[in-house]
């Protein structure tokens, strides 16, 4: 039993390492393009609202805590507590996606989703977007630089989208686990599944811990 | 039945259960660090803004990996695997960035 548990735990870590390399490619692309098209990336990142990003970071960190408590409940064989923790984690995951949807909708409405409807107006004439302009007082970008803001938003959607996909998969598995936990599946000493799912959930949290400063915070000042 | 009980006991004896107080302390530290990194982003520090933000993120990641993900209490095999993975990651990303960032070196 101990050996099996060790082996699945090790396999989970190997899977997470491949995931880290995958997200690492996206992070590297982001850092390289930010370095090349710095003014475009700075002004484009001013479109993100730090308030939503901070709220989502707090939500995700709290969900990691409830997940860790879920693992503890399974280890202590407390069925009620386990179900409660899993439900909390499930709900917090949905709250995260809800906030993400609000943010995506705003990008959609401002035509900041890459593609044929992408609009450069905010970057050619920052004063036309008073909410952001009053906070940052961005200077107009030249057309060739302004066009690179689309690359920022492409990477923004690619990175947060892949992260959100991982959240959706996690939430789906959580839903399955809540039913299994209610049936008493994880509170008989077989905690490996809950534990390894916990590793996955914390990994998704770690990705966000890096996405948040890289996308929202580091370009506040030029 | 008795053999099943035995295996569960063996399983538990090798398995370190982290106390909820540790988890609570970690989540409070993580939330405080989140507030710190947001606060720091409002301070004009020039080139140090991204450095401070990424340093805080690295501390947060380390706390999550060590405590929430139990690496502090895991086998040497797991610890070494995680460490080796992180090192490989840093080498890959670091070398790629060093290449791209220095392509125009001395030509400005």
What does this structure look like?
The complex is a heterodimer of chains A (222) and B (108). With 222 residues, chain A is an all-alpha fold. Chain A has one domain (23-217): Four Helix Bundle (Hemerythrin (Met), subunit A). Helices cover 79% and strands 0% of the residues of chain A. Chain A has nine helices and no strands. The longest helix of chain A has 35 residues, at 2-36. Chain B has 108 residues and is an all-alpha fold. The radius of gyration of chain B is 21 Å and the shape is flat. In chain B, 17% of the residues are buried. The chains are: A mainly alpha (222), B mainly alpha (108). Chains A and B meet through helix 1, helix 3 and helix 9 of A and helix 1, helix 2, helix 3 and helix 4 of B.
List keywords for this structure.
heterodimer, A: 222 residues, mainly alpha, Four Helix Bundle (Hemerythrin (Met), subunit A), 9 helices, elongated, B: 108 residues, 2 domains, flat
Portion in beta strands of chain A: under 5%
Tally of contiguous helical segments of chain B: 4
CATH class of chain A: Mainly Alpha
- The CATH superfamily of chain A bears the name Cytochrome c oxidase, subunit III, four-helix bundle
Low-confidence stretches of chain A: none
- Categorize the overall geometry of chain A: elongated
Overall form of chain B = flat
Give the low-confidence spans of chain B: 5-13
The succession of helices and strands of chain B, N to C, reads: HHHH
Helical proportion of chain A, percent range: over 70%
Radius of gyration of chain A: 20 Å
In quaternary terms, these chains amount to heterodimer
| Number of E strands of chain B | 0
CA distance, first residue to last residue of chain B:
76 Å
Quick one: which chains have the greatest interface? A-B, 52 and 55 residues
Task: Please summarize the sheet with the most strands of chain A.
Answer: none
Summed up, the domain count of chain B is 2
